[in-house]
Amino acid sequence: MRNNIVHIGAGELTYEIRAIVEIADKLKTLGIKTNMENIGDPIAKGEKIPQWMKKIVADLAMKDCSYGYCATRGVLETREFLAERVNNRGKAQITPDDIIFFNGLGDAIQKVYGLLRREARVIGPSPTYSTHSSGEASHAGQRPVCYRLDPANNWYPDLDDLRLSIKYNPAICGILIINPDNPTGAVWPERFLREIVAIAKEFDLFIICDEIYLNLVYNGQSTKPISDLIGDVPAISMKGISKEVPWPGSRCGWIEVYNADKDPMFKRYIQSIVDSKMVEVCSTTLPQKAIPPILSHPDYPAWLAERVARYEKFSNIAFDILKQVPALKVNRTNGAFYMSVAFKEGLLNSTQTLPIENPEVRALVEGLVNQPGVSVDKRFVYYLLASTGICVVPLSSFFTTEQGFRITLLERDEATFTRIFKNIAANIEAYLAS
Q1: E strand map for 259-403
Q2: Is the overall model pTM greater than 0.90, yes or no?
Q3: What's the CA gap between 314 and 423, in Å, rounded?
Q4: Percent of the chain clearing pLDDT 70 (strictly above)
Q5: How far apart, in whole angstroms, are the C-alpha atoms of residue 158 and residue 149?
Q6: How far apart (Å, rounded) are the C-alpha atoms in residues 38 and 394?
Q7: What digits encode the pLDDT tens for the residues 106-137?
Q8: At a CB cut-off of 8 Å and minimum separation 6, what does 78 contact?
Q9: What angle do CA 300, 303, 304 make, to 5 degrees?
Q10: Could you give the domains of the chain?
Q11: Reduced to 3 states, what is the DSSP secondary structure of residue 219?
């Protein structure tokens, strides 16, 4: 090309959660039967949508209004419904204009980071969900800035690390919270959230809080929405229906903005997000219209409770199996439907293998793991996939120095779920002994 047309942050756009699917698909063509435990799609794992929910969507599809544009911020009736739910808690008070809809939280994340000034950085947890770390790093054209989540303390945030990172990096203008957390499944207690809000206030920062899993909390744990704790600190809460309802194919998420009037610069930044959405016209209308009748349906609480109970049961099955492996740092998942498992330091190396009977599969995997820069946990993940058909995601791909893997809790059949985790445990022992 006459000039370099590649964005400065193009190299930061990575998403191993889906990238590994290409490898799994190649292995399928070579006869490997796979269990896809890599991506948080309940529908792909067999979640059955109830008839009452399908009827709501079907009835809306029969209405002409579902086929037109909506307001740039989103369907007014839906924003009024959501604002009322926040206001009824009695803490933060917002208006429908403080809510902006997007085509999924991936869309929201790209705009929230992409419309920041290039030099402005948002510090996020490590490990962190790839869409956040990639979006922030791509906007800045630099590696993400992170604070540590501690696997020795339930994957809770290391607040000393957060404070020092902010103190000595004046480019940091915001703090990212993911609660409940993806990829770790941790639920952050109120005391941690209050301290992070206090740090944001002290250093004059804003907060981004990804709360898409907020209603998927179990094992006796509790947390608070950031709206209950934010006080007068400017903040953005990210929410959606892809995980809770679940309707990931709707690509329907929204942000709730708190305290935009408290800081002129933050208010102008939020307006730039609205203006950017206006250039696109709006987000998809039909799923927005479905939100009030679905979330207010009399059968919805029981539907959600059944799903939460199943995740709780399966989280304990997984924990009870993997905690028996001495080589691992294992924490019980208490929210969302992911589990992050780290190997103890120094146990993985670049020579370990698992037996692979198919010579074509073995050749493919050896070609992959011998490429420059392949992390030792990605090497384990590739061998696990080729040897057992179990597809997980290397933990290092979530921008952390911890080596391990993330797996979902979405398999619905208990016998299959138990077999998968026992198989993983046995193969970890075999891999480390090789």
Answers
A1: 328-329, 338-343, 390-391, 393-394
A2: yes
A3: 15
A4: 96
A5: 6
A6: 9
A7: 999 999 999 999 899 999 999 999 889 888 98
A8: 101, 288, 289, 291, 292
A9: 90
A10: 10-47+301-433 (3.90.1150.10), 63-295 (3.40.640.10)
A11: coil
